[in-house]
Amino acid sequence: MIGEVPIGRAVTRAIVAALCVAAGMACIALLRGDFDETDWKVIATSLLFALVSAMAGAGLAVRPSHPELGSATFGASLAAFVLAIADRLERAERSAAVPAECSRLRRLAAAAEQSSS
Predict the structure, then answer these.
(1) Number of domains, the chain
(2) Which end of the chain is more exposed for a tag (fewer CB within 10 A), N or C?
């Protein structure tokens, strides 16, 4: 029979899992001999998830005695994680769009140069 898992145990498991992912990714990168951008992104996201899990767990743990504080802490933790991931995705989208735009401008400049000669 599956019982209810205490908040502390669930938060501890989430933190340990996130830290294991970060450590595993770091080990793989070290064995390969280099850290590329993807490695850093996975490690940073895993560490951020561990931090947010700890903060959200603290908010959930205090909810029975201080419901407003607990809910605010949990909500702020969740919002911080979502905003950080959204910012990272926006930056990735912007950086992917820049080379495509530069390539397009180079083609237009080359076409203009050929038509002027």
Answers:
(1) 1
(2) N
Does residue 49 lie in a domain region? yes
The residue segments making up the domain with residue 60 are: 7-88
99: in domain: no
* Alpha-carbon gap, residue 6 to 12, rounded angstroms: 10
Q: Is residue 52 a contact partner of residue 80, using CB atoms and an 8 Å limit?
A: yes
pTM of the predicted model, to two decimals? 0.69
Q: Is residue 98 included in any domain, yes or no?
A: no
Q: What is the pLDDT averaged over residues 52-58? A: 90
Residue 6: phi and psi, rounded to 5, are -60, 150
What's the pLDDT tens digit per position in 6-37?
777 888 888 899 999 889 988 988 898 888 88
Residues whose CB falls within 8 Å of the CB of residue 88, separated by 6 or more in sequence, listed in order: 41, 45
Cα(98)–Cα(89) distance, integer angstroms: 14
